[in-house]
Amino acid sequence: MISLNENHLFYLNKDYVINKESFEVHFQQEEISLTPKEFSMIALFLEYQNKVFSREHLINTVWGFNVSIEDRTIDSHVRNLREKLRKSGFPADNYLQTVWGIGYKWQKSIDSDG
Predict the structure, then answer these.
(1) What is the pTM of this model?
(2) pLDDT average per 10 residues of sequence, the chain (114 residues)
(3) Which residue ranges form the domains of the chain, and what is each CATH number?
(4) Among 9, 13, 38, 94, which residue has the fewest nearby CB atoms (within 10 Å)?
């Protein structure tokens, strides 16, 4: 279950913490280095778990309106984000899901550990 405390820390579970003030992500007390765009994407996914985000919505939310980038830029950032999470030992494939033909979502876990 995700929770937010007064320090702007999101706890996905006991091992996974994201700090929205310092732009840091930790898994099992080790920092995962993310780009600002990757961080913005994962923060959005975690804040709205199970919500499907279209590529267009991610572009507008993370990059802003009136930018000229291709939809595949989102795919590249999601691929990089998954790889960084996997390298840290986090089971990214269980959470960061592709919704074919639409976009991406963070699958909320059905167990109490996240």
Answers:
(1) 0.82
(2) 51 76 88 94 92 94 84 92 94 94 86 46
(3) 3-106 (1.10.10.10)
(4) 94
